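::Amino acid chain::
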Amino acid sequence: MPVRHVLLAMAVAVMWGCNFIAIDASLQHFPPMFLVAIRFALIAIPTVLLVKRPDVPLRWLIGYGLGFGTLQFLFLYWGMAAGMPAGLASLVLQASGPFTMLLGATFLRERVTGPRLLGILVAVGGLAVVGWQRAEHASVLPFLLTLAGALGWAVGNICNRRARAANPLHLTLWMSVVPPLPMLALAMSVEGPSRIVDSLTGFDEPGAVGAVFGLLYTVVIGTILGSGLWTWLMSRHPAGVVAPFSMLVPITGMTAAWLILGETVTLPEVLGGALVVGGVLLASLRRRSKALPGKAVQRDPAAQPGEVEVALRV
């Protein structure tokens, strides 16, 4: 990639890593389930008015929205509201990679090679270390909720793969139409109308302004700009060249959480995090087929167009 494209890929990783700081700020004022509804409603309304719906089966569009949009952010926001540190959340969410591969092998009959299986086991071992540390020093519930968010992301990835959208950005935008109504209904029943009304009227409370700016960052920078740039890069370079930059997201997230929020992690959590990142990267590597002289390279029939070497979702 040209240097400017490398810098753009790194900038997206920084945007997404700092997104966890923005979410943490928003959760200081808005209840988590209602916050998910607001986040996607702000994207869904202009999408319905201005963006053509992608030509994909409706069931996969809805499945993508329920998995990636609803379940992922329901459990992520809930976990962070329950005490999951922002930096550690950016790391644990990387479990979506191994989860996606396991679901793909189970439901799509995708082949799991030896290196991929080894990578999954390494990543799961790293998550076990992080989870053990959470149980030793704090409540394990926020960790499990965040892990459930990673599973929701993986479910969304499978539906995304089955949709096979010609324009992935349009699919991502239209996915945002699914979460607002179910999340609003859940927020009304669990968090209650009074808490929701208070969050919409009590802007004189400490942290309210920061919460609004955090929400705007998540929508404009984290979702629209970040996803737009990432899709643009993916359309111009092989996935195997672009996707590894997603490994910078937890590094950026944990560094930003340390600098801005003063979060610290234990040495075992750092080692567990290194295992997670290394395992995800190992499990995502594709071996490039070597063609013999005069022989054509056989393409994996299960692979999507443009998919080479790395299959990571961000």
About this structure: The longest helix spans residues 208-236. The CA atoms of residues 60 and 159 lie 5 Å apart.
